[in-house]
Design goal:
two-stranded antiparallel ribbon, TIM Barrel, 348 residues, alpha/beta, binds coproporphyrinogen III, seven-stranded parallel beta sheet
Length: 348
């Protein structure tokens, strides 16, 4: 370890080395549970915040000012690239994201733009570069994108969904349409992630929140191959560790044979030990990330500490290395003090 290239515990863990301390960060660590986030957000809409590097960097720094974290994830959203593809993105209060002109036919896919990641999404790279100016050398800058299926789900439904009926109609009745859309998103995602690495991301994460919404066969044949192609290409071209999050997807881990990711982020529905067992069964010796239930942060201090200790014990035995995190994004009603308790208990 030299003073010019200090070791980053999160990167050490991601590569399967013994980290200099147990790394921790929280999915959605920048967000509405922080009063200082709500103060910035009071004056600007969400998409504008994502497009302005000064504001995106400011809210990315907010949790780092409060907590002793090992990583910062750039403030943005998995649906931002949909703007570059030609859809209009809005977030209505209480409704979540909406995308204009949902994609339902091959004509719709063909009418999407062919963006250039640097030209059309460069503001995300600018936010990363700016954020990095205030990170400590041992802190990891994480870039991210949505995995193609999760992004495609919003592009097809035009909003969040419970049943994913329009997505499933394409899967079962019009497969070439969704295949073409996944391909279109995948091409952009590789360039988008590489642009983020060029701007300063030390690791990247692919969020596949809805991976658990399809049957194992559909996941294996249609969804995993395009996702894994992105992971492989980004790794080959950049060398940075890649984290993959198959949301609601404990069962999806049975389908990850050949997955090129360095880290699998496990949701809170699966024990880490079980996740490790399943992954070993398909030939993967990876680092695990996760997986405290984000709602556990509501628990009284003693119980919360006990849950962190239990997770530490499990992680020590389960994986080659572990990155402490929640099993899904923090929720707006999370008490900010709970993060300090988790970090304190982890460092003991
Ligand atoms: O983790 C971080 O701090 C980085 C920023 C980040 C956001 N969204 C900020 C955000 C990341 C990594 C995401 C990913 C994302 N966005 C996912 C995948 C991860 C997951 O949570 O499953 C998904 C599915 C989305 C789509 C999305 N964005 C939804 C469904 C919503 C609405 C949620 C809600 O509760 O209203 C968003 C909005 C969003 N993205 C917010 C934040 C901080 C809240 C926006 C606000 O300020 O109103």
């Amino acid at each position: 370890m030299t003073s010019t290239s200090p070791q980053k515990p999160m990167i050490q863990a991601a590569r399967g080395e013994k980290p200099s301390r147990w790394p921790v960060w929280f999915m959605r660590q920048a967000g509405r549970y922080l009063p200082e986030y709500r103060a910035v957000r009071a004056d600007v809409d969400f998409v504008t915040m994502c497009k302005r590097p000064d504001l995106a960097a400011e809210v990315t720094w907010q949790p780092l000012r409060r907590y002793d974290l090992d990583a910062s994830i750039i403030f943005s959203d998995i649906l931002i690239p949909c703007i570059a593809l030609g859809q209009e993105l809005t977030f209505d209060k209480g409704h979540g994201p909406r995308l204009s002109a949902p994609i339902r036919s091959i004509t719709d896919v063909k009418s999407l733009k062919s963006p250039d990641a640097t030209r059309d999404l460069g503001y995300v790279g600018d936010a990363i570069s700016l954020t990095k100016t205030k990170l400590k050398p041992e802190q990891t800058m994480i870039g991210f994108a949505g995995a193609p299926f999760t992004v495609a789900s919003y592009m097809i439904e035009g909003q969040g969904s419970k049943e994913f009926t329009e997505v499933k109609k394409l899967i079962f009745c019009d497969r070439p349409v969704i295949t073409a859309l996944l391909e279109k998103i995948s091409q952009l995602t590789v360039d988008y992630l590489l642009m983020q690495v060029k701007a300063g991301a030390d690791a990247v994460m692919l969020f596949d929140t809805w991976a658990g919404q399809v049957s194992p066969g559909v996941y294996r044949d249609l969804i995993f191959p395009c996702t894994n192609k992105i992971i492989s290409e980004v790794k080959r071209a950049s060398g940075v560790p890649v984290i993959y999050f198959p949301g609601q997807g404990s069962d999806r881990m049975y389908e990850l044979t050949g997955c090129a990711a360095d880290v699998i982020s496990v949701d809170w529905r699966t024990r880490l030990s079980r996740a490790a067992e399943i992954l070993k069964g398909v030939g993967l010796n990876v680092t695990l990330q996760g997986n405290l239930d984000p709602q556990a942060l509501l628990a009284p201090e003693a119980e919360l500490r006990a849950m962190v200790r239990a997770l530490k014990d499990e992680a020590r035995q389960a994986a080659r290395a572990h990155i402490f995190n929640v099993g899904h994004g923090l929720l707006p009603h999370t008490p900010p003090e709970s993060l300090s308790i988790v970090i304190d208990e982890l460092r003991k």
